[in-house]
């Protein structure tokens, strides 16, 4: 799983990346008949997309009343902390949108510990899904956004850590982050992230070219292990995309 090197869709720059991601999301939304579930990512790469979503023409395309927002991971800090993934998405678009508050499902980082937060979030996800076991033919999410860290991590699944092997739990606590910011994390596991119609990686900037080169060469990085029961799409801007000679 996840062993096939990713096929990239390369776009000109971060603006085009955000546009392409917003179009993909809008396309999925247009095809959905029922409620729609999006799992958001942290980090800087999706920020331009988030800004786009609360502005026209995308704002009018989103059926806010039936769209639900979740997170693939968060840093274990309060939402007002600048390092909070849910806080960032709220400031960038959710708080400026007509999204009903009850459709915004942040990871409860006010819990007593990362494990307690993970347990509570898993219970929330199971309740939303309406079953305790994930059925491949009925995905939990419509769209899962993913990022790529310089070390190859995705969500808060870091190289060499035990959480990579988790096959039962949907959400786990991560006591030590493998990369800055070095705060404990709460993350969805590979099986939970995989339960989606669309997994969309967003990768942007020259700094990502090294890790993209390793990924395309088949390195066993967490992001390469991520799989989806639906489509897995890598949207990469030109600065992040390795030159052909880098890959060869
Ligand atoms: C987090 C993330 C993480 C992120 C990557 C890429 O909370 O840190 O969810 O997986 O997506 O580290 O981050 P950048 O987009 O900032 O490079």
List keywords for this structure.
single chain; 248 residues; alpha/beta; 9 helices; globular; binds 6-phosphogluconic acid
Structure commentary:
It contains nine helices and nine strands. The mean pLDDT is 94. The chain has 248 residues and is of the alpha/beta class. Helix 1 packs across helix 2. A six-stranded parallel β-sheet has the order 1-9-8-5-2-3. A three-stranded antiparallel β-sheet has the order 4-7-6. The two termini are 23 Å apart. Helix content is 30%, strand content 19%. 6-phosphogluconic acid binds next to strand 4.
What is this structure, in a nutshell?
The protein has helices spanning 14-31, 47-53, 58-61, 85-92, 114-129, 190-194, 209-216, 222-225, 244-247, and strands at residues 8-11, 36-40, 67-71, 73-75, 141-146, 171-174, 185-188, 196-203, 231-237. It has 248 residues and is an alpha/beta fold.
Structural class comes to alpha/beta
Residue stretches low in confidence (pLDDT < 50, at least 5 long) are none
Order of helices and strands: EHEHHEEHHEEEHEHHEH
Helical percentage? 25-40%
Choose one word for the global shape.
globular
Which molecules are bound in this entry?
6-phosphogluconic acid
Taking the alpha carbons of the first and last residues, their distance comes to 23 Å
Rounded to the nearest angstrom, the radius of gyration is 17 Å
Largest sheet: 6 strands, parallel
Strand content: 15-25%
- The number of strands is 9
Strand line-up of the largest beta sheet = 1-9-8-5-2-3
* Number of distinct helices: 9
Return the average pLDDT rounded to an integer.
Answer: 94
């Amino acid at each position: 799983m996840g062993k096939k090197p990713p096929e990239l869709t390369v776009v000109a720059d971060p603006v085009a990346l955000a546009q392409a991601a917003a179009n993909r999301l809008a396309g999925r939304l247009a095809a959905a008949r029922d409620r729609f579930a999006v799992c958001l990512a942290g980090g800087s790469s999706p920020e331009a997309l988030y800004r786009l979503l609360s502005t026209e023409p995308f704002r009018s395309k989103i059926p806010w009343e039936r769209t639900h927002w979740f997170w693939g991971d968060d840093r274990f800090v309060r939402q007002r902390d600048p390092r909070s993934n849910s806080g960032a998405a709220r400031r960038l678009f959710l708080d400026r949108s007509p999204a009903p508050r009850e459709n915004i499902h942040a990871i409860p980082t006010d819990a007593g510990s990362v494990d307690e937060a993970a347990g509570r979030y898993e219970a929330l996800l199971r309740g939303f899904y309406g079953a305790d076991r994930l059925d491949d033919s009925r995905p939990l999410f419509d769209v899962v956004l993913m990022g790529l860290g310089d070390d190859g991590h995705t969500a808060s699944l870091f190289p060499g850590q035990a959480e990579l092997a988790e096959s039962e739990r949907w959400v786990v606590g991560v006591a030590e982050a493998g990369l800055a910011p070095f705060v404990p994390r709460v993350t969805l596991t590979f099986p939970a992230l995989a339960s989606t119609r669309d997994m969309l990686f967003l990768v942007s900037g020259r700094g990502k070219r090294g890790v993209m080169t390793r990924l395309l060469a088949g390195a066993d990085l967490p992001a390469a292990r991520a799989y989806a029961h639906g489509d897995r799409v890598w949207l990469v801007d030109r600065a992040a995309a390795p030159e052909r000679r880098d890959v060869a």
